[in-house]
Amino acid sequence: MTHSKTKTSFYRRLYLAHLISSGINTVPQIIELTGMPRRTAQDTITALEELAINCEFVGATKDGAYKINDWGAINPLWIKGQLKHICEVLAYPPPE
Question: What is residue 96's predicted lDDT score, i.e. its pLDDT?
């Protein structure tokens, strides 16, 4: 089944926010799990702000990580419940 760019973009943002809040919170970790290009991972993290998800980088450049401070209007429990479907739409493996 083909999904719209709007849907996949939205799901990608939710998925990355979920990963970050679950401890997969660096670009190298995200790349390793998903196989997405570095630039896509970085752009998606930056785009979380458009969903009112407050995500900040904490620590030094080489050993820091991202952290979700506020989910805005997004319910992280909904994401967790829909994670299998989100991963199927994006063709990403579900996090362990």
Answer: 67
